């Protein structure tokens, strides 16, 4: 699963997901893409699950780009531990997603195959998505 090799700080602040994505909001590599329409966090497990769903449907003759990376640490305290005594340990890494962010891109497939593969991938993700096509 995806996670950073090394981070400057082990535990990150939570922060807020305000506004919409300005950067990473256009297709850069492929012909078809899946774009987030709501905000939220996507874990590395969900990214891998969506990727596997797409690859399993397409079978062969494709190229997929994953445009998000889970680099924000998520911490949790163990069960039945009282409040206090600091922040919990890092449980997993998540990718913050704003509306308009491109999640996956694809090329070398037909539009019907791309649409079905992205539909299967969107079932695995916690944010609402839409499929877009590069018309240039």
Helices and strands in order, then pairings?
Elements lengths: L31 E5 L3 E4 H15 L4 E4 L5 E5 L12 E9 L4 E6 L3 H13 L5 E5 L3
Antiparallel strand pairs: 1-6, 1-7, 2-5, 3-6, 4-5
Helix pairs in contact: 1-2
Helicity, in percent? Answer: 10-25%
CA-atom Rg in angstroms = 17 Å
- In terms of DSSP E residues, the strand content is 25-35%
Q: How many DSSP-defined strands?
A: 7
Write out the strand line-up for the largest beta sheet, numbering strands in chain order: 3-6-1-7
Helices and strands: which structural class? alpha+beta
Q: Specify the overall morphology.
A: elongated
| Name of the CATH architecture | Alpha-Beta Complex
Instruction: Encode the helix/strand succession as letters.
Output: EEHEEEEHE
The CATH homologous superfamily corresponds to: Ribosomal protein L16/L10
From the 3D structure, determine the CATH topology: Aldehyde Oxidoreductase, domain 3
Please give the largest β-sheet: 4 strands, antiparallel
Give the tally of structural domains. Answer: 1
The pLDDT mean sits at 95
Describe the model.
This protein is an alpha+beta fold and 136 residues long. It has a single domain, classed as Ribosomal protein L16/L10 (Aldehyde Oxidoreductase, domain 3, Alpha-Beta Complex), CATH 3.90.1170. The protein has helices spanning 44-58, 111-123; strands at 32-36, 40-43, 63-66, 72-76, 89-97, 102-107, 129-133. A four-stranded antiparallel beta sheet has the order 3-6-1-7, with helices on one face. The protein has a three-stranded antiparallel beta sheet with strand order 2-5-4. Helix 1 (44-58) packs antiparallel against helix 2 (111-123). The longest helix is centred in the middle third of the chain and has 15 residues, at 44-58. The protein is elongated. The protein starts with 31 loop residues before the first strand and ends with a strand.
């Amino acid at each position: 699963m995806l996670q950073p090799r090394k981070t400057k700080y082990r535990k990150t602040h939570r922060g807020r997901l305000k506004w919409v994505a300005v950067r990473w909001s256009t297709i850069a590599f492929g012909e078809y893409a899946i774009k987030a329409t709501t905000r939220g966090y996507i874990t590395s497990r969900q990214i891998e699950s969506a990727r596997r769903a797409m690859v399993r449907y397409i079978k062969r003759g494709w190229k997929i780009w994953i445009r998000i990376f889970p680099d924000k640490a998520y911490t949790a305290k163990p069960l039945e531990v009282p409040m206090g005594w600091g922040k919990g340990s890092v449980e997993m890494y998540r990718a913050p997603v704003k509306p308009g962010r491109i999640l996956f891109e694809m090329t070398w497939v037909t539009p019907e195959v791309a649409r079905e593969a992205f539909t299967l991938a969107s079932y695995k993700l916690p944010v609402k998505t839409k499929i877009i096509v590069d018309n240039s």
